[in-house]
Amino acid sequence: MADAKLLGEVDPAVMAASGQVEAQVDIDPSETSEWLGSLDYVYKSKGADRVRYLVKALENRARRDGVEIPIETTTPYINTIPPTKQPAYPGNREIERRIKSIIRWNAMAMVVRANKKTDGHGGLLGGGVGGHISTFASSATLYEVAFNHFFRGRGESGYDGDIIYFQGHASPGMYSRAFLEGRLPQEKLENFRQELQPEGGLSSYPHPWLMPSFWEYPTVSMGLGPIMAIYQARFNEYLKDRGFKDTSGQKVWAFLGDGECDEPETLGAITLASREKLDNLIFVVNCNLQRLDGPVRGNGKIIQELEAIFRGAGWNVIKVVWSSDWDALLEKDDSGLLAQRMTEVVDGQYQKYVGMNGAYIREHFFGKYPQLLKLVENYSDERLEKMKRGGHDPEKVYTAYKAAVDHKGQPTVILAKTIKGYGLGEAGEGRNIAHNQKKMNEKELLEFRSRFGIPISDEEVGNAPFYKPPASSNEIKYLQERRTALGGPVPSRPTEHPKLEVPTIDDYRKFMTTQYDGKSISTTNGFVRLLGRLVKDKKIGANIVPIVPDESRTFGMEGLFREIGIYAHAGQLYDPIDSDQISYYKEAKDGQILEEGITEAGSMSSFNAAGTAYSAHGINMIPFYIYYSMFGFQRVGDSIWAAADMRAKGFLIGGTAGRTTLNGEGLQHQDGHSHLNAMAFPTVRAYDPAWAYETAVIVLDGMRRLFQEDETAIYYVTVHNEDYEMPTMPAGVEDGIIKGIYKYSSRDVEGAKGRVQLFGSGSILRNALEAQKILAEKYDVASDVWSVTSYTQLRRDAQSCERWNMLHPDQSPRKSYIETVLEGVKGPFISSSDNVRAVAEQLLPYMSEDYYVLGTDGLGRSETRTALRRHFEVDAASITIAALYRLSKQGVFPTSLVAAAIKDLGFDAEKPNPLYT
Ligand SMILES: Cc1ncc(C[n+]2csc(CCOP(=O)(O)OP(=O)(O)O)c2C)c(N)n1
Ligand SMILES: [Mg+2]
Predict the structure, then answer these.
(1) So what's the pLDDT on residue 2?
(2) Averaged pLDDT for residues 804-816
(3) Mean pLDDT score of the chain
(4) What confidence tens digit (pLDDT) does each residue in 490-507 have?
(5) Contact (CB, 8 A) for 415 and 318
(6) Which one, of 759, 742, 740, 641, lies nearest residue 698 by Cα?
(7) Residue 14, pLDDT above cutoff 80
(8) CA-closest candidate to residue 674, choices 734, 608, 718, 737
(9) Are 247 and 236 in contact (CB under 8 A)?
C-alpha cells in the first residue's frame, strides 16, 4: 500500500479543515505507555477533574517552551458519552420497538398509498402528490425516544409544553404516531397531501395555517427552523426575566437535517444561543450523511465538521455515532486503531458500507489494519453487516437526550449518525435516490413488513394497508400512558386564546393632538412618539415587544433605551460610557427592547416568537419590529412567509421607506418595492401612510383586531424620514385610513378648465398637494387630493367583491370600498407614490375611468430629495404634467398648453426613462 491512499481515507487537508489532527508516528512506544499508565492511575484514583487539571498543566508548560499544540475542536469519531456513563433505560424496549415499527410502517404506507392514488394527477415532476419516506425512516428512533421519554405536552395549563421544531419532511412520522394515539382518523391519513378532499387531508409539512390545532411551527424552508428555535429559546427566557411566565421547564427542541446545516440561517445565529447560555435549547441533527442529491460531505465528515463549529461556538456537543453493537469492540481495542479507523473513513465511504455486505465491510473497513481484522475475527459477516449506527439505538439516543436536558449553562447539539431510508433495503436504504423515494414494489413492501414484524399478510401487503393495533393492546396502552405522563400530545396548538383589552382610537385622540398637530416631524418620529406612549399604556404597555436590528438611533428611538431598557439576561455588567446622559445605553434583565444587533434574520425570528406567544404561551405579546424597509421583505421575506404560515401577529415597521424619501443613502438602501413584495403575503396588511395620525389609527385599530378580536394578521407600515408639518386629523377619516383611501383636500377653481383627482401616498402625498396648488394657480384646473394609505387593501376588497358578484350573478351586486368612495367622481386620476408603479397599478382593473400611475421604478442613487423626485418623475411638476396631459386626452385641455407647461415647469422632455438609468 506504501503511499497509496486507501479508499475512503480522509485527506490531511480535509482533516485539518474539520479540525482533526493527523495521526503522528509514535517514536517511543514504551515512553508513551508509561505516560498513559500514569494517566490511567490518576483517573482511577482521583477522577476526571484531576486528569483535566494535569493535562491542562502539561499543555501550558509545553506552550511556555514554545511547543505548538494545535487547538483541537473535534474529538475522535466515537460517542461523546462512554458506555460507563450511560444511564439505565427507563422504558420497555420491546414494546417501544414494536410501536416504532408500526409507526415506521404507517408513515411509509401513507406516502406510498397517497402516491398510488394520485399517480397520473400531476405533482412534482409528474407522478402523484409526492412525500418523503426516507427522512423519517432515518430519524424514527430520534423521535420515538423523545415522544416516549422527553417531549413535554402542554399540561393542564395548556401552555406548559416543550416547543418543538420537527424536521419538515419527517412529518409522515408525526402523523403516523398521532394516528396510533387516536388523534388522527384513518381517512385523514388516506388523504396525506390531499387537503382539499371533503373529509380533509394532511398537509405535506408542518403548517399551522392549514392544520391549526396540530402544527405550531413551519420548518420546511430549510434553515428557518433552527434559527427560529434559537430566538424562541431566548424569547422564553425573556418572558421569564420580565416576569410574564415561568418558562424554566420548557425545552425548545429543533430537529434538523445534516444537509440543512449548509443553509446560512441554520448556523448563523448559534453564538447567540451560547452567549445567552440557552440551556433550554436542544438541536438534534439527523446526520444520515445524505441530502437530496447525494452525500452531504462525501469527501469529509459532517459530524466532525459540525462538532468543530458548534464546539467553537460554545455549545455542548454530544455525538451519537455508534450503537451498543460497537461498545465491546471499542472497549477491547487497546491500540486505539478502531477509533482511528472510524475517524479516517469519509462519509461517502460510510454511505457505501450501508449498501454492502459484511464481507465487504470486513475487507474495506477493518481490513486496513491487521489488528482490526483480528478484533472482529469472531464476528460473522452477517453480524458485521447488522452493527447499527448510534442514531438507531434507543439507549444511545436516550443517553444523549438525558445529558442534554440535564446540561446547565449551554445549549446542546446532538449529532446523531443515522442511515437515510433505514429499513427500506433495496428501495432506498442509504442510496442516493433515497430522498425522493415514494413508491415501493410488492417485494420491497414484503421485506419491510418482515423486517419490522408488522402483522399484515402476504396477500395484503402489496396495497400497503395501514395497521393499528386495538386500543386494548399493550402497544396503544403504553404509548397513551407515556404521553399522559408527559403532559399530553405533541404537537398540538390551541385554537382558543386569551384576549387582551387594548386602548381605543378615542383614548389616543388627545395624544395625537398634542404630539402631532402642527409639529414638523417625520412619520418615523410620529411612530416613535406613539410607541413611547404605548409602552406606558396601562392596558398593554408591558406586552409591547420592540425589536430592532441596531437601528434605534437611525429611527430616533434611543430615548426608549433608558425608559424601558434593553433586554439582557445578564443585566448590565459594566458602567455604560454614556451613563451621564439621559438616554444612556441601559441593559437590564427585565429590559423590554430586543436589540438584536445587525441581524434581520434574527430579528424576524424574535418577531415570530413574540408574534406567536399568544398560542405558544397564552400571552398576547405585541411585537413591533422596526427596521430599514429595504432589508425586510427583500432580505428576510421567507421568514415573513413563515410568520404568515405560523399565524404570527404583530407590526412590521419598515423605516426609512421610499425610493426618494431616503435620499442620501443611495442604491442598496432606497426601498420602493417592499409594498410590491408585501402584497403577495396573504396575512400581511400593508400601509404607506403620509401623516402621523394615519399611522396611529392603523396601529390602534390593528391592535384591536389582532388581540381583542383575534384576527390573524401582520401589519406592515412604512414610515419615512422626511420632516414636515403634521396636520390635524380631519373628522371622520378613520374608516378610510383603515380601508385604504380618503379624500384629504379639495380645491375648486372658478371657471375651471377641468378637474382631476390626485392620489398620493407616504411622503409623496405632499407633492400631490403641491401639484394641486400649481394646477389651480397656474392652469386653472380644480382637483381633489386623496390620501391612499393602502392600495393592497383596496385591491383585496375590490377583488373579493368582484369575485362574489361573478359567482352570484342573479343577486344585487356588492360594491367595493373604492367604488363606493369614488361613486360619481370623474377622472382623470393621477396616482403618485414613492413606490414602484405596480403597487398603485393594483387598482387598474377596478377604476372605471382614466387612471394613470407615477412611481419610482428603477435603481436608487444618492441625491437631494428634490433631484430624486424629478429623476423618478414623482415631483409636483411631474404630477402636474401628467394631470394636464390626461385632461388633454379627454379633450378638455389644449395639447399645446401641455407642451408649454412642460417647458414652463422646467421639465426636460428628453430626459432618459429612470427605469433604465
Ligand atoms: C430553503 C430550502 N431549499 C431547498 C429545499 C428542498 N429540500 C427539501 S429536503 C432537502 C434535502 C434535505 O437534506 P437534509 O437536510 O440532510 O435532510 P434529510 O432528509 O437527509 O434528513 C432539500 C434540498 C427546502 N425545503 N428548503
Ligand atoms: Mg440528511
Answers:
(1) 35
(2) 98
(3) 95
(4) 999 999 999 999 999 999
(5) yes
(6) 740
(7) no
(8) 718
(9) yes
C-alpha of 176 from chain center: 25
Read off the pLDDT of each residue in 894-899 and give the average, rounded to a whole number. Answer: 96
For the chain, percent of residues with pLDDT exceeding 90: 91
pLDDT (0 to 100) of residue 583: 87
Q: pLDDT for 235-274, tens place per residue? A: 999 999 999 999 999 999 999 999 999 999 999 999 999 9
The residue whose CA is least distant from atom 16 of ligand 1 is: 259
Burial class (CB in 10 A: 0-12, 13-18, 19+), 48: exposed
Of 404-413, 548-557, 826-835, 895-904, the range with the lowest mean pLDDT is 548-557
Q: Going by C-beta distance under 8 Å and a sequence separation of 6 or more, which residues neighbour residue 610? A: 235, 545, 547, 594, 621, 622, 623, 650
CA distance 728 to 731: 9
Output the DSSP codes for 797-820: HHHHHHHHHHH-TTSPPP--HHHH
Nearest to 816 by CA among 840, 791, 794: 794
Residue nearest to atom 13 of ligand 1 (CA): 291
| Chain segment 218-233, per-residue pLDDT in tens | 999 999 999 999 999 9
**Is the CB–ligand 1 distance for residue 258 below 6 Å?**
yes
Q: Which residue has its alpha carbon closest to ligand 1 atom 23?
A: 292
Find out whether the beta carbon of 297 lies less than 6 Å from any atom of ligand 1.
no
User: Best mutation site among 291, 422, 437 for ligand 1, i.e. most ligand atoms within 8 A of its Cβ?
Assistant: 291
- Measured CA angle at 408 (ends 405, 410), to 5 deg: 95
User: Is 792's C-beta closer than 6 angstroms to any atom of ligand 1?
Assistant: no
By the 8 A CB rule, do 209 and 645 touch?
A: yes
Please provide residue 163's backbone torsions phi and psi, each rounded to the nearest 5 degrees: -105, 120
- Ligand nearest, relative to CA of residue 131: 1
What is the pLDDT, as a whole number, of residue 17? 47
Measuring CA to CA, which residue among 374, 335, 368, 332 is closest to residue 353? 368
Residue in the block written with cell 441593559: 587
Question: CB within 8 A of 853, min separation 6: which ones?
Answer: 830, 831, 832, 837, 840, 841, 844
Q: Which three cell numbers stand for residue 41?
A: 492511575
Residue-level pLDDT at 372: 97
| Ligand approaching nearest to the C-alpha of 139 | 1
Ligand 1 neighbourhood includes 292 CB (under 6 angstroms): yes
For a substitution probing ligand 1, which of 125, 167, 260, 639 has the most ligand atoms within 8 Å of its CB? 260
pLDDT at residue number 4: 38
Task: Give the separation between CA 325 and CA 327, rounded to whole angstroms.
Answer: 6
Give the number of the atom of ligand 1 that is nearest the alpha carbon of residue 292: 11
Angle CA 427–429–433, to nearest 5: 70
Distance of alpha carbon 282 from alpha carbon 404, whole angstroms: 7
Whose CA is closest to 684, among 642, 720, 726, 721? 642
Cβ of residue 265 lying under 6 Å from some atom of ligand 1: no
Q: Ligand 1, residues 143, 222, 438: which to mutate, most atoms within 8 A of Cβ?
A: 222
pLDDT at 128: 86
Amino acid, single-letter form, for residue 332: K
If you measure from the C-alpha of residue 797 to the centroid of ligand 2, how many angstroms do you get, rounded to a whole number?
A: 44
CA of 263 to the centre of ligand 1 (A): 10
Residue among 138, 171, 205, 292 to mutate when testing ligand 1 (max atoms within 8 A of CB): 292
CA distance 278 to 300: 30
Cell triple for residue 503? 386602548
Lowest mean pLDDT: which of 59-68, 238-247, 500-509, 873-882?
Answer: 59-68
Instruction: Please give the Cα distance from 787 to 762 (Å, whole number).
Output: 8
Instruction: Identify the pLDDT of residue 21.
Output: 47
Nearest residue to 398 via CA among 248, 284, 252: 284
- Rounded distance from Cα 257 to ligand 1 centre (Å): 7
Q: How far is the CA of 16 from the centre of ligand 1 (A)?
A: 27
